[in-house]
Amino acid sequence: MEDDYVLVIGSSGVDVKGRPWDDVEWHIPNLGRVRNSVGGVARNIAENLARLEVQTVLLTAVGKETAGRRVIRTCERVGINCDYVRYIPSGRTGTYMALLQPNGQLHVAVSDFQIIDYVDPDYLLEHEYLFEEARLVVIDTTLTNDALETVFELAGRYGVGVSADPTNPTLAGKLCPYLGQLFMVVPNAAETETLCNIGRPVNDRESGTGVARDLVQLGVEVAVVTMGGNGLAYAHSNGSGYLRAINTEVVDATGAGDAFSGAAIFGLLNGVPVDEAMRLGITAASLTLASQHTVLPELTQELLYDKLAV
Question: In whole angstroms, what is the distance from residue 90 CA to residue 115 CA?
Answer without folding.
Answer: 10
